[in-house]
Amino acid sequence: MRVNRLLRALAALSALAAAVTVAVMAAGSAGSQSDPLVSLSYLESTYTNTLLKEADGVLQSRNEALEKALAEEVAAMKKSVSSGTAATGSAASYTAVTLTKGQTLTGGVGTEVLLRQGTASCTAASAPGLVDVTGGGEVQNGGALTANHLYLMTAEGRGVTASSDVTLLVRGSYTLG
Fold it and tell me: Are residue 51 and residue 90 in the same domain, yes or no?
């Protein structure tokens, strides 16, 4: 009986020690420097303002970088237009492009060209030249394009050279030279 009492007392003492240890650990970590308690007023007054200031700074620097890049592009385009050098373009939908006699439009892979007015020929360093989507064939280097036919450029360096003043509908990336 005495051993039973001693075991009960020892068990109660161990449980009390464990409860005190857990309470001390919980009280010690909550609200400490490493794990602070956060209040709604702190979030609304201090933290939110800090985040907004940081976001404004990032947006301002990004805006300045974009404005600088835009200014450089505009300057390059103005220089290109004033000196008469090649122009470039890219269109997600069809864009009307006018070529003068002797001018060449060189397209990227996948560029589509539709001859609307004038006469033009295929320019390609190697076969295949342009794929005639409407007629279901190919046009080799120097071959004439047919009005109102859709042509596809399937490799780099393919293009259209104007034999007279030409109006094309173009979809995709291209350069004029």
Answer: no
CA proximity to 88, closest of 78, 77, 99: 77
Q: How far is CA 31 from CA 37, 51, 99, in A?
A: 5, 22, 74
Within a domain: residue 58?
A: yes
pLDDT tens for each residue of 66-89: 898 888 888 877 776 665 555 556
* Pairwise CA distance, residues 32 & 66, whole Å: 44
Please give the C-alpha separations between residue 114 and each of 40, 75, 77, in angstroms, as whole numbers.
63, 31, 26
| Tokens encoding 133 | 């989507």
CB–CB of 113/105 below 8 Å?
Answer: yes
Dig out the tokens for 120 from the structure: 């033009």
Structural domain boundaries, residue 74: 38-85
Total-model pTM: 0.50
Judged on CB neighbours under 10 Å (0-12, 13-18, 19+), 160 is buried
State residue 81's pLDDT score: 66
The string of pLDDT tens digits covering residues 17-36 is 777 676 666 555 555 566 56
